[in-house]
Design brief:
about 450 residues, alpha+beta, Outer membrane efflux proteins (OEP), 4-stranded antiparallel beta sheet, two-stranded antiparallel sheet, 6 strands, about 65% helix
């Protein structure tokens, strides 16, 4: 407990001092402060109470009451003076359901509602991990785009200066200068746009953590990029159909609808209750009519519904329609889970190939730029080709970073859909966070 408190204090100090927050720190702050997760937890606790409430329909109910009255009594036709009168007493009753089929199914339904609430809360917990990870990666991706835009702007500025010098000595035409100037102006606009996007990307952390985080840590280059394990989509689909929490919640909802049908049909069945009543009453008076009585009675009450204007039959039909709807929704969700599992499995395999290809693309783009610059020096290439080669290099660098982040996103989403996503996945990813490669939020 003390260790947890010290960790929380250290996290708050890190944020308040504007030091770099890692993915693990952002996640733990989100667990403590995210309103969506807090709402899901409160809903889970509220649904759990239904089990106790439904069980009460099978247990005895006991009540006790009492009364006391004070008055004055006299007889008009006699010479007796008036006298004070009054009464007091108490009563207690006990009622025990003996045959209540509807209450039994409501009790069983309460257990299904509790299981559904637990599954929905697990969905919310996994969704928080996804939201935190994606928000974190969105900042890193925005920073990668900004870095690429700044590098292109600086390179184009150097190119513009060189072209201007060559134009001043008559080695190139004015069109080269105009082309370089236009490219430089466009690169400035791109930097401004990416600076705004980078600053805005930090806003999601405020919503998640309730804290103003202005700096986060980056991800190291050595993070492994590997194919899914196991490497067969059927294994992942089998896991998803067994462990996906949305499917589990939908299946519990199906059980709830099935019991609604049984509850509705039980409206035709008898209701049998056993009752016991005890009472004690005292009537007071000085001369007459005073008494003291004790009563005790036991009874069994039977109520058989015969005709309710068609309400019970209609309720049963309505419950059947709701059951059909729940079944169709479950089937649709099941197919969607299978489809998404296949898509994410394929996407990750594509991501692995894409990252490797983007890495090679950087190397080839660098070689192409050097060759184009050499050609421009000897007059076989023009300035437009040089600018395009520079732009292609910086685009390749951004696409490589973006591909790595997309690989992480798809892995997180695949684990979520098969029900395997947990905080340990955040901590595993946090091992590849580099504290010395922080991303600072730009001032707005």
């Amino acid at each position: 407990m003390l260790k947890h408190c010290l960790l929380t204090i250290s996290l708050l100090l890190l944020i308040n001092q504007c030091l770099a927050a890692s993915l693990q720190e952002v996640y733990e702050l989100s667990v403590a402060n995210d309103p969506e997760l807090a709402a899901a937890q409160a809903s889970f606790k509220a649904q759990k109470e239904l089990t106790i409430q439904r069980k009460a329909g099978l247990l005895p109910s006991v009540s006790i009451g009492g009364s006391s009255t004070v008055g004055e009594r006299w007889i008009l036709s006699s010479n007796f003076p008036s006298e004070p009168s009054g009464s007091h007493g108490w009563n207690a009753s006990l009622s025990q359901p003996i045959f209540r089929v509807d209450n039994w199914y409501r009790f069983r339904q309460g257990q299904d509602i509790k299981a559904q609430a637990a599954a929905n809360f697990a969905v919310a917990q996994q969704a928080l991990i996804v939201r935190v990870t994606e928000s974190y990666l969105r900042i890193l991706e925005a920073q990668a785009a900004l870095t690429s835009a700044k590098a292109e702007r600086d390179a184009v500025k150097r190119q513009l200066d060189q072209v201007q010098q060559r134009f001043d000595v008559g080695l190139v035409a004015i069109t080269d200068v105009l082309e370089a100037q236009a490219a430089y102006d466009a690169s400035i606009v791109s930097v401004i746009e990416q600076e705004g996007a980078q600053s805005i990307s930090f806003e999601a952390l405020l919503r998640l953590t309730g804290k103003t985080i202005s700096e986060i840590s980056g991800i190291i280059e050595e993070m492994p990029i590997t194919a899914p394990n196991p490497n067969t989509v059927e294994d992942w689909i089998e896991k998803a159909l067994s462990n996906n929490y949305s499917l589990i919640a939908a299946n519990e909802g199906l059980k709830i609808s099935q019991k609604d049908v049984k509850i509705a049909r039980s409206g035709h069945l008898p209701i049998i209750n056993a009752n016991a009543v005890w009472s004690h009453n005292v009537t007071e008076g000085r001369t007459f009519l005073g008494s003291k009585t004790n009563n005790r009675s036991y009874s069994i009450n039977i109520n058989i519904p015969l005709y309710q204007g068609g309400q019970i039959r209609s309720g049963a039909r309505q419950a059947l329609y709701n059951l059909d709807s729940a079944q169709e929704n479950f089937d649709y969700l099941q197919r969607t889970v299978v489809e998404n599992t296949r898509n994410l499995f394929t996407a990750i395999k594509t991501d692995v190939a894409r990252v490797r290809a983007r890495q090679r693309s950087i190397e080839s783009s660098q070689s192409a730029l050097e060759a184009t610059r050499t050609g421009y020096e000897v007059g076989t290439r023009n300035i437009v080709e040089v600018l395009q080669a520079q732009r292609q290099l910086y685009l390749a660098q951004f696409q490589y970073a973006s591909a790595r982040y997309q690989y992480i996103r798809d892995n997180i989403r695949l684990k979520e859909i098969v029900g395997n996503l947990s905080p340990s996945d955040v901590y595993s990813l946090d091992k590849y966070i580099k504290l010395d490669g922080s991303v600072k939020r730009l001032p707005q």
